[in-house]
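Lecture 7 notes: from sequence to structure.
We start with the chain below.
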Amino acid sequence: MKPKVIIVNYGMGNIHSILKAIRLYTPHVKYSNSTQEIQDADAVVLPGDGAFSSAMHQLEVEKDTGKPSGLKKALVDFAKEGRPLLGICIGFQILFEDSNETIPEGSKTTFTKGLGLIPGKVRRFSTLSQETTTLGNKRKIRIPHIGWNRLIDKESQKEGAYMYFIHSYRVQDVPKQFVESYCRYGEDLFASIVRKNHITAMQFHPEKSSSQGLKLIQNWISSIPIS
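Predicted structure tokens for the same chain:
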């Protein structure tokens, strides 16, 4: 038997590649915003591109009606029950405590709260950070961080596979016991794969990262207990 996987429909873009990738390893895949289907799934994927505050708003409020959606509670309950959840890109970031990206106008705080399932804070890359060119010169890094970059193993500090990144914000202050790999951009070393209990989170897009990224997805699906 293959696991039933729900890819959460919460209005964030760029889901076709992850749908296609998951279907390589299990036919039981559905793109859904149904809290009942999330509850009935063997595993859940929280994907997408976009801004942190928009992502959290979409999890809390139905787009058409403006009523509470129940998606946020369904995901938190799912994760707290110890069931497998995979966060990718913005779906990675909103698993953490908060972000200072695109604060809603009129807000009395400088942060947007995330799901709070993993300790850590999402902050913009420093514009003062530099990188070394092929000629040995220093230059400010470009934001956003777009393109292929290497994972760095937490234990050995050795560089590993290239993965595809696209983001302007990165996570900080993640306890080391939850970090599986890092990535370096300019002078900034940030967590790129994080695991806590049955939550797996990737800042990059494994579904767009060739055979190495697909292997990560395959391994994750193979680890899913089937109810």
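Points to note: The longest helix spans residues 210-222. The chain has a mean pLDDT of 92.
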